[in-house]
Amino acid sequence: MLASTDSHGYLTIFGFGNDDKYKRIPNELFFHTDYRPLMRDSNEFVVDEQTQQPPHLMQPPFLVNADGNPYDLEFQRLVPGREHLTDAQLNPHVITNERGMPEIIGENGEIEDENNQQTRPRGTAWVRDLVRPLNLVELR
Protein backbone atom coordinates (compact mmCIF):
# COMPACT_ATOMS: atom_id res chain seq x y z
CA MET A 1 0.00 0.00 0.00
CA LEU A 2 1.16 3.52 -0.74
CA ALA A 3 -0.41 6.62 0.81
CA SER A 4 0.36 10.27 0.18
CA THR A 5 -1.05 13.69 0.96
CA ASP A 6 -0.70 16.97 -0.88
CA SER A 7 -0.36 20.55 0.41
CA HIS A 8 -4.16 20.82 0.62
CA GLY A 9 -4.40 17.80 2.93
CA TYR A 10 -5.95 15.44 0.39
CA LEU A 11 -5.12 11.80 1.05
CA THR A 12 -4.53 9.38 -1.82
CA ILE A 13 -4.17 5.66 -1.11
CA PHE A 14 -3.04 3.05 -3.61
CA GLY A 15 -3.22 -0.61 -2.69
CA PHE A 16 -4.96 -3.95 -2.89
CA GLY A 17 -8.40 -4.85 -1.51
CA ASN A 18 -11.45 -2.71 -0.84
CA ASP A 19 -11.62 0.77 0.63
CA ASP A 20 -14.32 0.31 3.29
CA LYS A 21 -12.20 1.33 6.28
CA TYR A 22 -10.74 4.33 4.44
CA LYS A 23 -14.14 5.79 3.53
CA ARG A 24 -14.52 6.96 7.14
CA ILE A 25 -11.30 8.98 7.08
CA PRO A 26 -11.85 12.77 6.85
CA ASN A 27 -11.05 14.46 3.54
CA GLU A 28 -8.61 16.95 5.13
CA LEU A 29 -5.71 15.47 7.05
CA PHE A 30 -2.98 17.66 8.47
CA PHE A 31 -0.60 17.30 11.37
CA HIS A 32 -0.77 20.23 13.76
CA THR A 33 2.98 20.71 13.25
CA ASP A 34 2.88 20.83 9.42
CA TYR A 35 3.10 24.60 9.09
CA ARG A 36 4.74 25.57 12.36
CA PRO A 37 7.82 27.75 11.97
CA LEU A 38 11.29 26.25 12.29
CA MET A 39 14.45 28.05 13.34
CA ARG A 40 18.14 27.30 13.79
CA ASP A 41 19.66 26.96 17.24
CA SER A 42 23.11 28.17 18.30
CA ASN A 43 24.70 25.09 16.68
CA GLU A 44 22.83 25.76 13.41
CA PHE A 45 20.57 22.70 13.90
CA VAL A 46 16.95 23.05 12.82
CA VAL A 47 14.47 23.08 15.74
CA ASP A 48 10.77 23.73 16.17
CA GLU A 49 10.32 27.37 17.18
CA GLN A 50 7.73 26.63 19.86
CA THR A 51 9.27 23.57 21.56
CA GLN A 52 12.95 24.17 20.72
CA GLN A 53 13.23 20.46 19.82
CA PRO A 54 14.40 18.89 16.58
CA PRO A 55 11.27 17.95 14.59
CA HIS A 56 12.12 14.23 14.53
CA LEU A 57 12.33 14.12 18.36
CA MET A 58 9.00 15.86 19.02
CA GLN A 59 5.93 14.05 20.29
CA PRO A 60 3.78 12.44 17.60
CA PRO A 61 1.62 15.17 16.07
CA PHE A 62 -2.16 15.48 16.28
CA LEU A 63 -4.38 15.09 13.22
CA VAL A 64 -6.27 18.30 12.47
CA ASN A 65 -8.43 19.74 9.69
CA ALA A 66 -7.46 22.72 7.50
CA ASP A 67 -8.64 25.15 10.21
CA GLY A 68 -6.42 23.53 12.87
CA ASN A 69 -9.26 21.84 14.77
CA PRO A 70 -8.24 18.41 16.08
CA TYR A 71 -10.15 15.31 15.02
CA ASP A 72 -11.82 12.82 17.35
CA LEU A 73 -9.83 10.33 19.43
CA GLU A 74 -10.47 7.46 17.01
CA PHE A 75 -8.49 9.31 14.33
CA GLN A 76 -5.72 10.41 16.73
CA ARG A 77 -4.99 6.73 17.40
CA LEU A 78 -4.13 6.29 13.71
CA VAL A 79 -0.96 8.36 14.14
CA PRO A 80 2.09 6.13 14.71
CA GLY A 81 3.14 6.51 18.32
CA ARG A 82 -0.37 7.35 19.56
CA GLU A 83 -1.95 3.90 19.13
CA HIS A 84 -1.82 2.87 22.81
CA LEU A 85 -2.20 6.21 24.59
CA THR A 86 -5.04 6.93 26.99
CA ASP A 87 -7.94 9.17 26.00
CA ALA A 88 -6.52 11.95 28.18
CA GLN A 89 -3.20 11.80 26.31
CA LEU A 90 -5.00 11.99 22.96
CA ASN A 91 -6.76 15.27 23.81
CA PRO A 92 -4.61 18.22 22.75
CA HIS A 93 -4.38 21.48 24.66
CA VAL A 94 -5.92 24.02 22.25
CA ILE A 95 -5.79 27.79 22.57
CA THR A 96 -7.05 30.57 20.31
CA ASN A 97 -4.11 32.55 18.95
CA GLU A 98 -3.96 36.29 18.25
CA ARG A 99 -5.51 35.76 14.77
CA GLY A 100 -8.52 33.96 16.27
CA MET A 101 -7.40 30.56 14.96
CA PRO A 102 -7.20 27.41 17.11
CA GLU A 103 -3.63 26.36 17.90
CA ILE A 104 -2.44 23.18 19.59
CA ILE A 105 0.24 23.96 22.14
CA GLY A 106 0.62 20.55 23.75
CA GLU A 107 -1.03 17.51 25.22
CA ASN A 108 -3.52 17.62 28.07
CA GLY A 109 -2.59 14.12 29.18
CA GLU A 110 0.06 13.39 31.74
CA ILE A 111 1.66 10.02 32.37
CA GLU A 112 2.94 8.54 35.60
CA ASP A 113 6.50 7.32 35.91
CA GLU A 114 7.57 4.38 38.07
CA ASN A 115 7.52 6.59 41.21
CA ASN A 116 3.90 7.71 40.54
CA GLN A 117 5.15 11.17 39.59
CA GLN A 118 3.22 13.05 36.92
CA THR A 119 5.47 13.77 33.96
CA ARG A 120 5.11 14.95 30.41
CA PRO A 121 5.79 12.26 27.81
CA ARG A 122 9.34 12.57 26.53
CA GLY A 123 9.98 13.40 22.90
CA THR A 124 10.88 10.31 20.95
CA ALA A 125 11.25 9.61 17.31
CA TRP A 126 7.83 8.40 16.19
CA VAL A 127 8.54 7.75 12.54
CA ARG A 128 8.84 4.05 11.79
CA ASP A 129 8.59 1.62 8.95
CA LEU A 130 4.93 1.73 7.90
CA VAL A 131 5.13 -0.67 4.97
CA ARG A 132 4.16 -4.21 5.89
CA PRO A 133 4.92 -7.24 3.75
CA LEU A 134 2.12 -8.54 1.54
CA ASN A 135 0.53 -11.82 2.58
CA LEU A 136 -0.05 -14.68 0.11
CA VAL A 137 -3.61 -13.64 -0.73
CA GLU A 138 -2.52 -10.11 -1.57
CA LEU A 139 0.38 -11.39 -3.65
CA ARG A 140 -1.97 -13.49 -5.80
Describe the structure in brief:
This protein is mainly beta.
Strand segment count: 10
Residue stretches low in confidence (pLDDT < 50, at least 5 long) are 109-128
The share of residues in helices is under 10%
Order of helices and strands: EEEEEEHHEEEEH
Main structural class: mainly beta
Radius of gyration over all CA atoms, rounded: 17 Å
How many DSSP helices?
3
Tell me about the largest β-sheet: 2 strands, antiparallel
Average per-residue pLDDT, rounded, comes to 79
Distance between the termini: 15 Å
Q: How is the largest sheet built, in terms of strand order? A: 1-2
Oligomeric nature of the chains: single chain
Shape: globular
Strand content: 15-25%
Notable characteristics:
single chain, 140 residues, mainly beta, two-stranded antiparallel ribbon
Question: How does this structure look, described?
Answer:
This protein has 140 residues and is mostly beta strands. It has a domain at 31-126. Helix content is 9%, strand content 24%. It is built from three helices and ten strands; from the N terminus they run ββββββααββββα. It has helices at residues 73-76, 87-90, 136-139; strands at residues 2-5, 11-14, 30-31, 38-40, 46-48, 63-64, 92-96, 102-107, 111-112, 118-119. The strands form five sheets. A two-stranded antiparallel ribbon has the order 1-2. Strands 3-6 form a two-stranded antiparallel sheet. The longest helix has 4 residues, at 73-76. The radius of gyration is 17 Å and the shape is globular. The model is unreliable at 109-128 (pLDDT under 50).
